[in-house]
Amino acid sequence: MADEYVFISDLHMGGDEQLTALEFEDELLSFLADLEERGGDVELVVNGDAFGLWEYAEVTGPERLERVIEDHPRVFEQLRATGEEIDVTLIPGNHDYDLACYPSHADRLAEYNLSLEPEIAITREVGDARIWIEHGQQHDPNNRMRDWGNPHALPVGYFVVQRIVAAAGRYSGRARGDWLRDIQSVAPMEEIPRWLFSNYFYREMSPYLRAVVVPLLLFFNITLLYLFGTVLEAVGILPARFFTDNSIVRALGVADVVLEILIAINLVAMFVLLLLAVPLWLFRRDLRHTLGRFGLALSGVRVGQGDEPFLRAARELLESKPDVAVYVYGHTHRASLTRWGDRLVINTGTWLKKLEHVESRFSHLPGIYYPSFRLNYFRIFAEGDRIVVEYEEIETNEPLDLTRFQRLIARRPRSPESIPERTVIDPDGPLEVSESAPSSDPSD
User: Fold this and answer.
1) Closest alpha carbon to 335 in 274, 376, 366
2) What are the TM regions of this chain, as residue ranges (predicted)?
3) Which domain, by its residues, includes 250?
4) On the CB side of 189, how many CA atoms lie within 13 Å of its CA?
5) Strand partners of residue 56
6) CATH number at residue 30
7) Cα distance between residue 120 and residue 374, in whole Å
8) pLDDT, tens digit only, all 444 positions of the chain
């Protein structure tokens, strides 16, 4: 039993072509080197998705792990050095589920001083209490393994990664920029269509076509105002010809002609959309119903569902196992700390780039996926009869991978929910949680 435990998760190292890029490599190497230098009775636990094994489509089985090692030699050599001074433990997540399927993985990782525990959940002792540790995919129907350890019992999420995410890595070089490889940062997967459309509009669309479309969208509200004003004229609420024969507008000269053309085009577009609205609504409704029957759209971790399924599982476990003081999971890529009396639920987040959908400053233009990093780790140790959890974020440069136009019109995203740097609990204290436990970030 160690005196101190350090937790990280969801590194997702590996993948075909562009997906193998590790944007936080320097920060990870520095973090591991610091642990090596400190040494002591410390255990680093990577609770799932250390590797993106699903993201390799051209190789299978143990060869996937070999590819990760070949693609990231500096990281594995630093892991070897860190593992000489402290214990380093890995458990499988869904993206590196292969670790639970092939016994040879344990021996291969041991060569780098990494201890693999191919279990769906493990525990550690801290003081007189226990820490429950899992990745969390078993609470996500799209990624739940029905037969743990069976390499052929794969969930829906595997095929989504293989057909969409891995393919994006292979074709990323054909895009204007490296934006396609960020598909692994899009969560949940229902966001992928909207993310694709946003990047098509701002990056892939012909600049000439965008130069035509953007003014039309920007003047859409003016078109609505014009249409509303003409209706008010027709019913006599406004003076006659107030909108249709305004002297101020006529004084604009050529600009008046351009404005009238834009309004006319928007009026035609609005009329066409109204004609198509009903059949498109019926089609969308039927498509959602069909996908729901196959479990692809209406189950799993959906937009707006946040961490509720995982918090529900944590509540049930803490109620059934009173000696567990801290419940640790990952998977959702949202770092958080939730306190229920003298029990804690920790989400270890991700080291991947995070993409947050933000609205543009101008209505009707597509939203933008704002990039950021939140590299972090949690430390858990006993202090007398109490348990201490410390949280720290690692500074990194914000990625500057938005186009100039996107940076100009994007609203700044809200700041992430803050996590206390230090939290102290008494493991003999009570569990206090309502029947419906909210996420620590109510916006998720």
Assistant:
1) 376
2) 208-228, 261-283
3) 219-293
4) 20
5) none
6) 3.60.21.10
7) 25
8) 789 999 999 999 999 888 888 999 999 999 999 999 999 999 999 999 999 999 998 899 999 999 999 999 999 999 999 999 999 999 999 999 999 999 999 999 999 999 999 999 999 999 999 999 999 999 998 899 989 999 999 998 888 888 788 777 777 777 777 788 888 888 777 788 888 888 888 888 888 888 877 776 766 666 666 666 666 666 666 666 655 555 545 545 555 556 566 667 666 666 666 666 777 777 777 766 665 654 444 434 444 457 889 999 999 999 999 999 999 999 999 999 999 999 999 999 999 998 989 998 877 788 999 998 999 999 999 999 999 999 999 988 777 788 888 888 888 888 888 999 999 999 999 988 765 444 444 333
* Spatial distance between the Cα atoms of 113 and 135, rounded to a whole number of angstroms: 21
Rounded to 10 deg, the angle between the 254-293 and 220-234 helix axes is 100
Same domain? For 79 and 50 the reply is yes
Judgement on whether residues 196 and 235 belong to the same structural domain of the protein: no
Residues 6+ apart with CB under 8 A from 32: 75, 78, 79, 81, 82
